[in-house]
Amino acid sequence: MRIGMVSEHASPLVALGDVDAGGQNLHVAELSTVLSRAGHDVTVYTRRDDPDLPEEVRTDAGYRVVHVPAGPPRPVPKDQLFPHMGDFARFIEQRWQAERPDVVHSHFWMSGLASVLAARSTGIPVVHTFHTLGMVKRRHQDGADTSPEERIAMERTVGKQADRIAATCSDEVFEQIRMGVPRSRISVVPCGVDVDRFTPNGEAAPKEHKHRLVAVGRLVPRKGFDTAISALRSIPDTELVIAGGPDEGRLGDDPEANRLLEHAERTGVADRVLLAGQVLRKDLPALLRSADAVVCTPWYEPFGMVPLEAMACGVPVVAAAVGGLTDTVVDGVTGVHVPAQRPDALATKLRGLLADPARRDAYGIAGCDRARSRYSWDRVGMDTVQVYERAGAVPAGAAAPAEEMAGEVL
Ligand code: UDP
Q1: How far, CA to CA in Å, does 296 sit from each of 169, 223, 317, 332, 337?
Q2: Is any ligand 1 atom within 6 A of the Cβ of residue 279?
Q3: pTM of the predicted model, to two decimals?
Q4: Same structural domain, 124 and 257
């Protein structure tokens, strides 16, 4: 199948951890890799944000990345990219007229908009993954939400115009039904985890205190790292390592890093909190394995790859019961759910878990089983291809698929 993957701000080629580089970049990279490995011809379209980037790159994983000229060729915050989506759509439409994909898979609302516009003239089926919804962001961030005014209305348009929506978790399905997307057009395909990289066996980074908690993510307030810092006050003999943000050398310039360090000072736990900055993929498994528990306490979380990475490493996860974390982390089996933004409740659950090594082991084993059996990228890739077929993707030269299985939610 010839697949056009559209990811306007999130290139699969960049390092993770910066403000606008996280789960979506990884999702697009891993999905493109696994689909290429399965014999599909994948091209990723992403915005050119550096004048020195070649127009096209062939990756070692086998997929191509096309750098689309839309807006200035330099980094622009994603919330300022909307005015350039017309140029983006025109570029991909021209490419698709010359080289028609069998299906387009767009990621994030602006890619969805560009894709439904560009695919309209050619009738190419569009599968869309929102990754995060403007309505949810507005609910939680309100005045701090820098998304363009048009976002929520445009997401409704994309929800209606795309042939199929690939939601990443069940919570998102309910949100989309509220947006007016018919349930029969929504499938659930989770994000995956690299089960060859994230394994229970292997090196573990050394720790300095009796217990170690690890939290990983982009350094943005909604990831709720401050909740974990506050909880630390009543968890003795325990250190907290937070990975994410710019690399260690540039952390001093990062406003959120400074805010977290000040919060740790005020809370009286600064000597037990370490901001590690951006941790490279290759170093992440050793960091996760060094944890007695991985803590994920965002205000909200559209999916959340970090819990899966921890589970695949055999580490129990203590997670806020929000969004995708209610699907991936099974309370009392692979970890513990806590209410969001409640340091007291988090501290109570963590103290109980840290005092119980047998329970930690049991959660770790169950988490690893769950990650490997349900969330490997191979499995996610196969589920995704089924969604492409349900959207009407017919590889050039193949017969049309049997009648669509309308109404089914994967
Ligand atoms: N990540 C990383 N190094 C860092 C910070 C984050 O490799 O220093 C990775 C993290 O392991 C995860 C991804 O970035 O795979 C973040 O995805 P997630 O779904 O947790 O959050 P998002 O960024 O999509 O909000």
Answers
A1: 17, 8, 7, 16, 10
A2: yes
A3: 0.89
A4: no
CB of residue 71 inside a 6 A radius of ligand 1: no
Query: Does the CB atom of residue 110 touch ligand 1 within 6 A?
Result: no
Residue of 7, 14, 16 to mutate, ligand 1, most atoms within 8 A of C-beta = 16
Is 205 part of any domain? no
Residue 197 lies in a domain: no
- Residue 27 maps to a domain: yes
Q: Are residues 223 and 186 in the same domain?
A: no
Q: Is 269 in the pocket of ligand 1 (CB under 6 A)?
A: no
Domain count of the chain? 2
- pLDDT band, very low/low/confident/very high, at 12 (cuts 50, 70, 90): very high
CA 21 to ligand 1 center in whole angstroms: 8
* Shared domain check, 237 and 181: no
Structural domain harbouring 169: 2-192+376-390
pLDDT for 261: 98
Instruction: Give tens-digit pLDDT for 259-296.
Output: 999 999 999 999 999 999 999 999 999 999 999 999 99
Alpha-carbon torsion (176, 178, 179, 180), positive or negative: positive
175-199 exposure pattern, b = at least 16 Cβ within 10 A, e = fewer: bbeebebeeebbbbbbbbbbbeebb
CA 295 to ligand 1 centroid distance, Å: 13
Distance from Cα 142 to the centre of ligand 1, integer Å: 23
Same domain, 163 and 22: yes
Are both 65 and 188 inside the same structural domain? yes
